[in-house]
Design goal:
Blueprint lengths: L12 H67 L5 H9 L3 H15 L4 E4 L7 E6 L3 E9 L3 E3 L4 E11 L6 E4 L4 E3 L11 E4 L2 E4 L3 E11 L28 E8 L2 E10 L2 E3 L12 E6 L2 E6 L6 E2 L3 E10 L3 E13 L3 E3 L8 E4 L2 E4 L1 H5 L8 H10 L8 H9 L1 E10 L7 E2 L2 E11 L1 E8 L2 H10 L1
Helix pairs in contact: 1-3
Length: about 450
């Protein structure tokens, strides 16, 4: 019997049991299929995960190794400015050695506080790398307190010295004791009294500091010489015996200080030549300070083992003045290069301190251009026995010193790599500025000259 309002017929008990079993069987089938998929997928997923972890592990250590190589290159560049040999081999194979060398130069210039500038210098083949010394002094002004002096009148002059910058934590001792020069007053056999105030000054960690130095020539001039430079008319009777009523005299201010400059040259060396070697142009390294210290060679690089080459060192005055006295030039070499000191063209000898200038080469730098006896000796060497002035002497004998020595490479790697040649020059530098005064023999002449001024 069917109830009213219900159009569906209830399934029989047999059908309900069959339906229940069907659902269970389908559920089991789906479960088996799911397990099968998960098992297969899980197994594959597990294998890929292990491989992925291994790759990550190996990649991590590869990254550490690369980081170690990079950091070691940077550290070596930071400390020495050079690329480690083991790194240079790989960098050359992939064509990045020159890039790495230039980068190492820049890193080292920053770490050492020396900013290098690379250029083609006039008169020198190849490239020149220049670094400026953190040091500067100049004579801002040097002038007498007036331009015209009478006979026997004390003569005074003032200099203003400006310390632009001094090397960090290094004392610079300025010596003024012999800095004040007056023509025909201080350069005679028996020099007259000169008062200098101050006589010296030690400067440390100064920047843009200005101070005065006074020179006083207490006795002035007692007479004005004849045109020939003699006081005796008879001595010049064959020339002129006209007595001068005024005379122009040169004043000089020449303070001195001791200083040392250092520069390192890094040429490429290689054991043997190969046809595919990259030939590099000559290189020079220069330190610019009171003097210009240059080291290098005119020859292309790399330098090969057992071949003879030439090292050149040039010291040139840079500031106004001259190199008063060269105390020493010392060369320090790393392993792999040796100077041929027995060669007759070598200016250096090997000592426990390194390679130093031989005595004859050092002695040639000792000419004193402020000495009247020295100027007389130099006069005898001129073609027409003409007078030699202080300025001429400085220009010819105290402006530049050149030294050289042949060398060989005793050991090197199969790949072109850098070596280090260190040079230190110690000297006394004499700065210079000049002015003039006029000496007259009457007060009337003084007034006339001052009006003209």
């Amino acid at each position: 019997m069917v109830e009213e309002g219900n159009s569906e017929e209830k399934p029989s008990k047999k059908k309900r049991v069959a339906f229940w079993f069907g659902r269970r069987i389908r559920g089991v089938g789906r479960g088996v299929e799911s397990v099968s998929r998960e098992g297969a997928g899980g197994g594959f997923s597990l294998g890929f995960g292990i491989v992925r972890r291994i790759i990550k592990f190996l990649g991590f250590f590869a990254g550490l190794f690369v980081a170690y190589i990079v950091l070691s290159i940077i550290w070596s560049a930071f400390i020495t400015g050079q690329i480690p040999e083991y790194a240079a081999v790989g960098l050359e194979r992939i064509g990045l050695l020159d890039f790495a060398v230039n980068a190492a130069d820049k890193i080292y210039s920053i770490s050492s506080g020396n900013i290098y500038k690379e250029e083609n210098a006039v008169g020198f083949s190849g490239t020149t790398r220049t670094v400026k010394e953190a040091f500067g002094i100049e004579i801002q002004e040097f002038a007498p307190d007036k331009k015209v002096y009478q006979l026997n009148e004390p003569i005074r002059a003032r200099a203003l010295v400006k310390v632009i910058k001094t090397p960090e934590d290094e004392d610079i001792s300025l010596d003024f004791r012999d800095a004040c020069y007056l023509e025909d007053y201080t350069d005679i056999e028996t020099p007259k009294e000169v008062v200098v105030n101050p006589e010296d000054r030690i400067i440390t960690n100064q920047e843009n500091y200005i101070f005065p130095v006074w020179c006083e020539f207490k006795h002035g001039f007692s007479e004005i010489l004849y045109y020939s430079g003699a006081t005796d008319v008879e001595a010049v009777k064959e020339k002129t015996s006209i007595k001068k009523t005024s005379d122009l005299k040169v004043l000089r201010f020449t303070p001195r200080f001791s200083y040392s400059q250092f520069i390192g040259w890094q040429p490429f060396i290689k054991e043997t030549y190969e046809p595919d070697d990259k030939i590099r142009e000559p290189t020079w390294d220069v330190s610019e300070g009171p003097a210009s210290l240059r080291v290098g060679s005119d020859e292309s690089q790399p330098f090969y083992k057992n071949d003879q080459h030439e090292l050149k060192i040039i010291l040139t005055k840079n500031w106004p003045g001259s190199i008063k006295s060269l105390n020493s030039v010392v060369i320090g070499l790393t392993e792999g290069i040796e100077l041929l000191t027995d060669n007759k063209f070598c200016d250096f000898a090997l000592t426990s301190y390194g390679y130093v200038l031989k005595a004859p080469a050092l002695e040639e730098t000792k000419i004193d251009c402020s000495s009247s006896s020295t100027l007389e000796k130099l006069k005898a060497l001129t073609p027409f026995k003409s007078d030699v002035t202080i300025d001429q002497c400085i220009k010819q004998y105290k402006s530049e010193f050149k030294f050289s020595c042949p060398f060989i490479v005793t050991s090197a790697e199969q790949i072109a790599s850098r070596t280090q040649v260190n040079v230190k020059a110690s000297y006394i530098y004499e700065m210079s500025d000049a002015n003039t005064i006029t000496i007259v023999d009457s007060e009337t002449q003084t007034n006339e000259l001052e009006v003209e001024e």
